[in-house]
Write a structure and sequence with these properties.
This protein has 18 helices and 36 strands. It has about 750 residues and is α+β, with helices and mostly antiparallel strands.
Length: about 750
């Protein structure tokens, strides 16, 4: 025994690096593989195992039949060592057998017996910002190596002194699974045997100042249900997608084809569309349950797309998902990642495309999230003037850092490639583009040229849209950009930002302000109604009536309308008529399709009981028919971005608050004329310019009884005739119809010269 002890001590003295021992004692070792595991030295095979509180440790062969007991090297550190001198005894593969207490014996593979899977090429691409599959390398991935199943963990923490993966599987003891730093990359990695799906974990990070931080996995694919916030090991493999036919058809669509197709988006928050149990923070329906209910509803109503708020995991319900904690994980509020795959799959089976709200503009300061990740600014800019949103209390991504760009660009690809998402709506783009967004003088840093443009953010957005167009030209990347920044939807190659579409927030703000006015005052603000048609071709727009307009004291769309109750419903239908007739793709927030009365709250279901009441039934039927009209008439979408797609017939009658315009499709057949009245005054004989002679047939009137109206319709065909103007002696055309109060009338005609 004494001879063995002397021999082991000699090994410790001759081979074990005292610097590594010192680092282990201090808890800052970042190359544990240089000390732990199996090594060859002077023709001998040596094993060093760290198992604090273990009583005895053996090194065994794979079968467990041959076992060599290791000697305790350092009781305080929990180090055990073994030397095998004879070649015949040497082990090609081995296991570690550990005895705790009096009888508890555990046998496992050694984490330090496995080589890294992250290559030099991986670290090179990552440092360049071009590793578009980095999510397959970083994070937690279940693997089976030589018959041993475990999880490979990898995390980027460039300023850390040491990183360990901790969880219930090691009693949250950071000494047991210290990760190995891969060269100068800042990436730490470790394969942990016998840890599989469902394992709860975090990264324990020792900072340069010696502080211990516990962080969720930035690349983790699943997280605990809040208020718990650890990551959970899960595998994204194995789900059997059923949307092959849809994917084949969808992926064949070019950008140009999509621009001439209908796009009717239903914006939804899953947790409050319907709840299983009201007044319960966790009373949600699952992804799978919602897939069936929502899918059938969207088909019935005539929507082509659904845009989902708050899918990437987030800590605070009240942020609605716009303060993301885990960018690579669908929220566990409604189920597992594979449950979310099922949701997308079911939408695709019904022909519904799925768009996610995506938030690369900022992230929360919660201690377990990305902020101050390894004790220093990693994902955020290190200068507070560039790295924080004072109004939102959040951090701003450092877009100039290549690894951060890589994190975000790969994340966008991740949702499309792993979850078959059809597009992303990029939140708060304006806050990314302007360095002084939401900041006071002296609280922001100008760019190198002294301006307020964020060059790094511009570069990131162009990078994102370029690689997306290259890899997934069928995917929508939509900008929520609230300013007049030029070229948002212009191609990157043409010096634009490269987005597919831009939310038309200028129209939304002007139009809603106009609709809120008392009818008498509308005549003085007629420009607010018409102005958007002077710039609607400047970008490729989506017309939006979004969630932002029905929260925080702004009230519902219904209650924005002035007047008595009956006038409110009529005005809302007229507003929707203008919305559908105006050029641009469409987005309507959930609940407005049946005239939700209360403001939206993420804490409760929509007020579906309102559909038992006739006025709400009328709005619901109107939206359903407007959706049908939109889908069945290419005049409403085919030429959204073409000058021939829209023409005013009358936009100058401010005194009556009426307008008329035509929408043209790809042929001269089934063109549409919209006539709108925004006052509660009927026009018995409303004469207006027409686009041509011929017969005009009323195909929709918001005053129809089925919509809750009075039934004042144009039941007979309307004839447009030639007229000659007195001043210029030019030939024109006009028609006369009945125009109900607070209404939209839609006429169909075939164009004739």
């Amino acid at each position: 025994m004494e001879e063995v002890e002397e021999r082991v001590n000699e090994i410790l003295k001759k081979w074990m690096n005292p610097h590594l021992i010192e680092e282990m004692e201090e808890g800052v070792i970042n190359a544990p593989q240089d000390l732990l595991g199996m090594h060859f030295y002077e023709g001998t095979q040596m094993f060093v195992v760290r198992r604090p509180v273990a009583q005895r440790v053996w090194i065994t062969d794979v079968s467990g039949e041959t076992a060599f007991e290791a000697e305790e090297l350092d009781a305080e550190l929990g180090l055990f060592g073994l030397e095998i001198e004879k070649k015949k005894d040497q082990l090609k593969d081995y296991r570690v057998r550990i005895q705790y207490g009096e009888g508890d014996v555990v046998e496992t593979a050694d984490p330090y017996a496995y080589k890294t899977e992250i290559t030099d090429y991986d670290t090179y691409l990552f440092a360049q910002g071009n590793h578009y599959e980095i999510f397959d390398k970083l994070g937690a991935h279940v693997e089976t190596i030589d018959g041993v199943t475990g999880t490979r963990f990898a995390v980027w923490a460039p300023h850390a002194r040491s990183v360990s993966v901790v969880g219930y599987f090691n009693m949250w003891d950071g000494r047991l699974h210290t990760m190995s730093l891969i060269g100068p990359s800042g990436i730490y990695e470790l394969f942990v045997p016998d840890v599989g799906e469902g394992a709860v974990y975090k990264y324990q990070i020792t900072t340069r100042s010696g502080e211990l931080l516990f962080k969720t996995d930035p690349y983790g694919n699943y997280a605990q249900m809040r208020p718990d916030n650890a990551s959970v090991v899960t595998s994204l493999a194995g789900y059997e997608w059923q949307d092959g036919d849809y994917e084949k058809k969808h992926r064949a669509k070019t950008r140009e084809v999509r621009e001439r197709a209908p796009m009717n988006i239903y914006e939804a928050h899953l947790g409050s569309w319907k709840k299983r149990v009201e007044d319960d923070d966790n009373g949600f329906y699952s992804y799978r349950e919602l897939a069936e209910m929502m899918g059938d509803y969207l088909v019935e109503m005539g929507y082509t797309h659904i845009e989902l708020m708050g899918i990437a995991e987030y800590p605070f319900d009240g942020s609605w998902g716009y303060q993301v904690g885990c960018y690579y994980a669908p929220t566990s509020r409604y189920g597992t990642p594979k449950d979310f795959m099922y949701f997308v799959d079911e939408m695709h089976k019904r022909g519904i495309e799925v768009i996610l709200d995506w938030v690369p503009a900022h992230f929360p300061k919660d201690a377990h999230c990305l902020g101050n990740f390894d004790g220093q600014a990693v994902y955020e800019h290190s200068d507070r003037r560039r790295g924080e949103h004072p109004d939102w209390g959040t951090y701003i991504f450092d877009y100039g850092k290549k690894e951060v760009q890589n994190f975000l660009v790969a994340n966008a690809l991740f949702w499309i490639e792993k979850f078959h998402i059809d597009g992303l709506r990029v939140d708060a783009v304006a806050s990314m583009l302007y360095l002084d967004y939401g900041k006071q003088d002296g609280d922001w840093l100008p760019n190198k040229d002294g301006g307020n443009e964020n060059y790094e953010a511009m570069d990131f957005l162009r990078h994102l849209n370029s690689i997306m167009e290259k890899r997934h030209p069928d995917a929508y990347i939509i900008a929520e950009e609230s300013t007049a920044w030029p070229g948002v939807t212009k191609r990157v190659k043409d010096n634009g930002l490269g987005f597919s579409y831009k939310w038309n927030m200028g129209w939304m703000n002007d139009f809603l302000e106009y609709m809120k006015l008392d009818p008498y005052f509308k005549q003085f603000h007629h420009d607010q109604l018409c102005f958007s048609l002077s710039y609607h071709l400047s970008e490729k727009y989506i017309l939006v009536l979004s969630h932002d307009e029905v929260v925080h004291g702004k009230c519902s769309l219904l209650n924005k309308m002035p007047g008595l109750t009956g006038d409110k419903y009529a005005a809302l239908k007229a507003a929707f008529g203008f919305f559908y007739g105006h050029p641009g793709k469409k987005l309507l927030f959930m609940g407005q399709e049946f005239a939700q009365e209360r403001e939206w709250s993420e804490m409760r279901s929509l007020d579906w009981f309102l559909l038992d009441q006739e006025p709400h039934q009328g709005i619901h039927a109107f939206i359903k028919d407007m959706n049908k009209l939109y889908l069945e008439n290419d005049a409403l979408y085919y030429n959204d971005n073409d000058v021939m797609g829209f023409e005013w017939m009358d936009c100058e009658r401010a005194e009556t608050s009426t307008v008329a315009f035509v929408r043209r499709g790809k042929t001269t057949k089934k063109q549409l004329m919209f006539i709108l009245n925004f006052t509660p005054v009927a026009h018995e004989q409303y004469t207006v310019k027409a686009p041509c002679v011929g017969t005009f047939r009323e195909i929709l009137n918001s005053d129809a009884p089925k919509y809750g109206g009075q039934g004042r319709l144009n039941e007979s065909p309307i004839k447009a005739k030639k007229v000659t103007t007195d001043k210029k002696k030019e030939t024109a055309y006009e028609l006369t119809c009945y125009l109900p109060p607070l209404s939209v009338v839609v006429l169909e005609y075939d164009y004739k010269k």
